């Protein structure tokens, strides 16, 4: 029998439908680790929430991962950028995410999902944690687990984001953060076929930062304590401008703080935009992925699309076309300099770390909670955890048959990017920087004037006509 060359096999797979899946990831001590290769997963990521909060409309079943055409467009640009992870903040657990999750999976991009949203009743209220911790809230966040547990590229869940932002909010909230983490992890253990890490995203408030990390990473009842964080995210904007350094940014302080962490620590947001009005150069990327900061597991740049706060790498125009900003080019250039082999190397010492026992002695600020008695689940929660929520919306991978991006995307120089498409990765690979210079390689059609939208980009569901291409591929096969 004739053997099929790998290139033809990959072509056929891409035309018939992509079903490759990235490897799942687990937490081993200080690192995220690929469960198959045992390589370290260093997060090279971007925060992804097109349209901002207005892009989340559960009444219409809309969120950042509900429109496959939009995801196809953005996955192509994120793949070229070189990212392997996105963070998505606001999720409608009842929406269909199969197409978007499958597209990001096909290009080797993991997803970290926030289980909360800004709507009332869909997060822990920092001013009233006891009152907002109820069975209705848990039903909602368990729904997010059900919607995403079936995707192998679901990397993790954030149980909360910046619940504590000063000393006063650090008094009562820490036990409730741990309670939500416990409930999520117990639900995952009961209803998922694999472990999915659960953690917290903290504000970079230095007065409470070390106490927050110490409180959440310690074990109350041995190493199996389900309420402790599996990882710790930090929203940090301390490296500002092209003249910032490892020392002036305070990265040296953060490195010292987290060097003995027993859980992965990463920047869940970074990318200071001061001074405003100038493109970001992202020279902190070289520091974040350097040997000096190996205790950290990378980070997620804030953010993909331009919103009112002016952090966007791209502008999403009213007609769903996209215009790249110089920030995109600069970040791509920094990613291209990374030594992927080095940053994927796992350290046996780091992966073997065990958590310290919780103690009031590890909390420095007198205003921060020293209460390690975690609230019991609210009435009805135990039944939910044991039996599952009613009518769960279980997501699953689907074939990705469309690879060509149907709307125009314009480089930062105004020229349209030609033949833009996702490039599905074989052999369960995750995406890595590919050495591309997206804007520099365009030479044709100038873009119209950009008009950024503050709403989630809309688009029709397009598909690629594969029949004629399949014939060509089969003909090539028969000629071998």
What distinguishing features does this structure have?
alpha/beta, 3-stranded mixed beta sheet, globular, disordered N terminus, disordered C terminus
Give the SSE map:
Layout lengths: L5 H11 L8 E4 L2 E4 L8 E5 L20 H14 L3 E4 L9 H9 L3 E5 L14 H4 L2 H14 L5 E8 L12 H18 L6 E6 L2 H12 L14 E4 L15 H8 L6 E6 L13 H5 L7 E6 L12 E3 L5 E3 L1 H10 L4 H4 L4 H4 L29 H7 L21 E2 L4 E2 L27 E3 L20 H12 L2
Give a verbal description of the structure.
By secondary structure, this protein is of the alpha/beta class. 28% of the residues lie in helices and 14% in strands. The chain is built from 14 helices and 15 strands. The strands form four sheets. Strands 3-4-5-6-7-8-9-10 form an eight-stranded parallel beta barrel, surrounded by four helices. Strands 11-12-13 form a three-stranded mixed beta sheet. The protein has a two-stranded antiparallel sheet with strand order 1-2. Helix 1 packs antiparallel against helix 14, helix 5 (135-148) crosses helix 6 (174-191) and helix 6 (174-191) runs parallel beside helix 13 (381-387). It is globular, with a radius of gyration of 22 Å. The model is unreliable at 1-16 and 450-480 (pLDDT under 50).
